Structures are given as C-alpha cells and as structure tokens.
Amino acid sequence: MSTAQSAQPKKKRRLAQVAQNVKDSYTISRRSFPWIGWVLLGILVALLALAVVLSTVTSQALWYWLLMGVLLALMADMVVLSLATRRASYMQIEGRPGAVKAVLDQAGRGWYVESDPVAFSPKGQDFVWRLVGRPGIVLVAEGAPGRTQRLIEEEKKVLRRILSTVPVHVISVGTAEGQTRLIHLERELRRLPTKPTKLTNTEIERVSKRLSSLSSKGMPIPKYLDPNNIRPDRRAIRGR
User: Fold this and answer.
1) Number of alpha helices (DSSP H) and beta strands (DSSP E) in the chain
2) What are the transmembrane regions (predicted)?
3) Residues of 179-193 as b/e, b for ≥16 C-beta within 10 angstroms?
C-alpha cells in the first residue's frame, strides 16, 4: 500500500513538470510569435474536422476517429511548439554578447565545442568561437565583419602553423548583409563541406586535444559576458 501511495505523488509531480515545461515553452514562443496559440488551436480543429469526415466516409465509429484526431493534434502541436520555442529563444538573444555559444552548445554529437572564446575584442564585444567536427576546424565570428576579420586572421595563422593539414572554415554570425543569422547557424554547420577531407571520430578527438593543450592557459571570459544569462533553457527549446 505504501509503495502505491508513494508512486502516485511521483506521477503527479512528473505531470506537473510536463505541464510547466509546456507552459514555459508557450510563453517563450508567444513573445516572438503572438499568433502561436491560434496555430495550435487551428491544428486541433483541422484534425478534428478531418476525423469527422473520415468517420463519415469509412462508416466507422466517430469516437474512434475523434480520439485519433486528438492524439495526432497533440503530437503535431508539440512539434510546432518545440520548433517555435527554439526559434523564438534564438531570436530573443540575438545580438547579445555570447549568444553564439548558446547555439553551439546545441550542435549535438560529432562536434567538440570549446567552452571559452579563442579570441575577443573588449572594445567591440566581438568574439571568435572554435569547434571541431567532421568538416574540420570551424571558427565562428560573432560581431561586425570589419572588426572580427583581424581576430579571424590571427587565429588562422596559428592553426596553419600547428595543424596545416586540417581544413579551417569560417562563419560570421550577425544581422549585417552576408552574415549568418543566429537562428541559421546550426544549418550552416550542417552544410559545411566534408570533401575532400573528412575527419574521423579519432581524428576529431586528436585535433581537439591538440587545440586544448595549446589553450591550456585559457582565455578568460570578459566580465561583461555571462553565458548563464544568455543561454536559453534547453528544456524549453526542446519543448519538454
């Protein structure tokens, strides 16, 4: 009896946590997309209407198709809300110093992302972040291209000297013409060419360790940059 009673509060807490996560995701999405509620409602209405039509056409029980419609609507709404929350989160932090790191932390498997910037300009609050993956080494510049160009060139010189055979790619993130918007950074990483050279998992690990050993002294994060303040809630981004 005690085991059953203790299981019920845990189940209630889990349900309450799920409900809170959904509420937080909706709140984040609505700040950037005020119409998100209507879209979620429209999906439900459309699938319920489709359920009625299918029930009439197939002569099957209406309750069965309505139940299927509700379940499909919940699944579709969660997918839409998750995508909207992720996009809204990035839109709300775009332009803030260190916002790129929030996206790089979501890069996923196959990428090694250094925790601190490899170069920065205190005057312009410009950063250069470095990560290693199958395409090679990627330098992600955060700031105006005119100000970050020097930082990029200095870092490329160092990389050519110690890892001359590893390809180096550069992505400039910002809102100016020719730059990659923050929301599209993950897509740009996926589009990087892996030919003619494609690093294996072992090579990625070796390159990462080599770079880490060179950066062992570390570059301190500027006082005005607090990653905890610009990193979006991962649960909210995933819609969980």
Assistant:
1) 9, 5
2) 35-57, 63-84
3) bbebeebbebbeeee
